[in-house]
Design a protein that fits this description.
This protein folds into 2 domains: 238 residues, Type I PLP-dependent aspartate aminotransferase-like (Major domain) (Aspartate Aminotransferase, domain 2); 91 residues, Aspartate Aminotransferase, domain 1, CATH 3.90.1150.10. Helix content is 42%, strand content 16%. The protein contains 14 helices and 12 strands. A 7-stranded mixed β-sheet has the order 2-8-7-6-5-3-4, with helices on both faces. β11 and β12 form a beta hairpin. α1 runs antiparallel to α11 and α2 packs parallel to α11. It is globular and about 60 Å long. It binds pyridoxal-5'-phosphate. Pyridoxal-5'-phosphate (PLP) binds next to α3. InterPro entries: ArAA_b-elim_lyase/Thr_aldolase (IPR001597), Low_specificity_L-TA-like (IPR023603), PyrdxlP-dep_Trfase (IPR015424), PyrdxlP-dep_Trfase_major (IPR015421), PyrdxlP-dep_Trfase_small (IPR015422). This is L-threonine aldolase.
């Protein structure tokens, strides 16, 4: 019996029994020669699901992000990124180190950049300025909030970027959470996007991997870049086999994670309205604010840990809890009760 309730991330999810079986029985080959049937199957399934021409299996979402930018920029170029985005904050300065590009952070409101901010940020050329090459979106946005960005917004901002010859890249590590929350098909949601990536090992619970999607030409270039940085894996089919099962079995159940997150948010709001923003709990991430609770975030995290409940401290007054297929309704109820006791309510 599992005794720890782990909300630190949906990346803590373990492969399902069916994934392990698929890995054991995977048909594999030399992916460098384009001969791994399972990798090819996963790449084709993914491309079809998003209505893109081609896909590339990559070891991690971080690597997918970095390959995407390396493929679409030259050193000295500029890319527009969200101030709270993963690619800007959580990838050890990879944009500068690997692509030699300058990242220009944009402020967001409810996860959205304003069109006029983007318009103003795009460099029009000229001898002295860098050239704006890529607009980086993220959906769901903000790893501590998980805000789903609407299809209307994504398409409007993409059109603006395209008007200026700027490529639109989407870090869609949690795109299935966004599509589920918005109740639309991922293909429709990502229609205006040139290149995107989604993670297989967050809510989808596969052991490794992300898929990069784009045109045939872009993916052919990206494949070379992946090779350059040592991201090619000859018999990747063992890993891809779990990804295939993830796409077949784990997407429809993401709704459950959202219901659990909402339930947790409601229960915490019953304890104290100021603890959570129920309206902003739209996917699988619950953010707790302790500003008015008289306890700090490190203390709450430590007290919960003593009771076998792991959460993430974001800063002095903020914690993050992520629901996933390892979290049940009774876990949620147990957690809200524990927080109530710790806060002395
Ligand atoms: C988790 C995450 C990543 C990185 O995923 P890894 O597979 O751990 O490298 C990138 N972007 C976003 C938005 C994420 O949530």
């Amino acid at each position: 019996m599992r005794s720890i309730i782990d909300y630190r991330s949906d990346a803590v999810t373990l492969a399902t029994f069916e994934m392990r079986q698929a890995m054991a029985n995977a048909e594999v080959g030399d992916d460098f020669a384009g001969e791994d049937p399972t990798v090819k199957q996963l790449e084709a399934m993914s491309a079809q699901m998003f209505g893109k021409e081609a896909g590339l299996f990559v070891i991690s979402a971080t690597m997918a992000n970095q390959i995407a930018i390396m493929t679409s920029t030259q050193p000295g170029d500029e890319v527009l990124v969200g101030e709270e985005s993963h690619i800007f904050n959580m990838e050890t300065g990879g944009l500068a180190a690997l692509s030699g590009v300058q990242a220009r952070p944009l402020r967001s409101s409810n996860g959205e950049f304003s069109l006029s901010d983007v318009q103003r940020a795009v460099r029009k050329g000229g001898l002295q300025s860098p050239i704006t090459r890529v607009l980086c979106l993220e959906n769901t946005y903000d790893l501590n909030l998980g805000l789903p960005l609407s299809q209307e917004y994504m398409s409007e901002i993409s059109m603006l970027a395209h008007d200026h010859d700027v490529l639109v890249y989407l870090d869609g590590a949690r795109i299935f959470n966004a599509a589920t929350a918005l109740k639309i098909e991922p293909e429709f949601l990502c229609r205006g996007i040139d290149v995107l990536q989604f993670s297989l090992c967050k809510g989808l619970s596969a052991p490794v991997g992300a898929i990069l999607l784009g045109t045939k030409d872009f993916i052919a270039q990206a494949r070379r870049v992946r090779q350059r940085i040592g991201g090619g894996v000859t018999k990747a089919g063992y890993m891809a086999a779990a990804g295939v099962v993830a796409l077949q079995t784990m997407i429809d159940r993401i709704e459950e994670d959202h219901i659990h997150a909402k339930r947790l948010a409601f229960k915490l709001a019953e304890v104290d309205e100021s603890l959570v923003n129920v309206e902003k709990t739209l996917t699988n991430i619950v953010q707790i604010s302790l500003k008015n609770a008289g306890k700090d975030a490190v203390l709450l995290t430590a007290e919960l840990e003593k009771q076998g409940i792991k959460i993430k401290t974001v800063d002095q007054t903020t914690c993050r809890l992520v629901t996933h297929w390892g979290i049940t309704v009774s876990d949620v109820d147990k957690t809200s009760e524990a927080i109530k006791r710790i806060l002395g309510r």
